[in-house]
Amino acid sequence: MTQDARSAAASRKKSPPAAAKTGSHSSTASAQVFQHYQAAVQLVQQGKYEKALVALEKLLPTATFEIVERCRMYITTCKRQLERQGLIFGTPEERYDYAVSRLNEGYFDEATQQFQGILADFPTADYAYYGLALIDSITGRIQGCLDNLAKAIELNPKNRLQARADNDFQNMVDDPRFTELLYPEIP
After folding, report:
1. Which residues, including other chains, have CB under 8 Å from residue 119's CB and lie 6 or more apart?
2. What pTM does this model have?
3. pLDDT tens figures, 87-117
4. What b-and-e string marks burial along 78-114, b requiring 16 or more CB atoms within 10 Å of the CB?
5. Does 127 fall in a domain?
């Protein structure tokens, strides 16, 4: 081997191949992305949705597929939370309409919060008690349904007629207390 060949071979041994350099840089970058992801998730858990949203969106171009999918899920959560916080209703009827839309979409906890919010401001809002009775019926909370429907009927007797025709009370039709509530005149 000539002197030039030996020095070329020695220099090849000293410096790692290009793939190895890229691999270590890649694993360092992946670790940093994962750390940023964890920090963003922590922001979500702390209820800092605006900051979390920004942090998660910054991760999308550089993250692995798995982290991108998780980021998208958390981004959706952040946006939903920010929308909920920004809700302002001009009237209790607007809030009721929103609560009914949440109920119809299956977001029972959120609908319940809205109906309870109406009642906090307007304790005689029979339609809010009726809405709570619907949720209780759909979710199988029998006593809650009976209590809320009784209050709705007490505040507005027309709710009795409405409940008789409302399919959302199907879970209650075999309960004699429900029948007695809707048909008190029948012995």
Report:
1. 125, 128, 129
2. 0.56
3. 777 788 888 998 999 899 899 998 999 999 9
4. beebeeeeeeebeebeebbeebbebbeeeeeebbbeb
5. yes
Q: Note down the domain range covering 40.
A: 3-85
Radius of gyration for the alpha carbons in the chain, expressed in angstroms and rounded: 30
Number of domains in the chain: 2
Reading the block at residue 49, the tokens are: 């949705």
- In contact, 114 and 102? CB cutoff 8 Å: yes
- Return mean pLDDT, the chain: 84
- CATH number at 148 reads 1.25.40.10
Contact 163, 149 (CB under 8 A): yes
Q: Which residues contact 170 (CB under 8 A, 6 or more apart)?
A: 137
**Residue after which a domain boundary falls, among 20, 52, 85:** 85
Distance, CA of 15 to CA of 21 (rounded, Å): 9
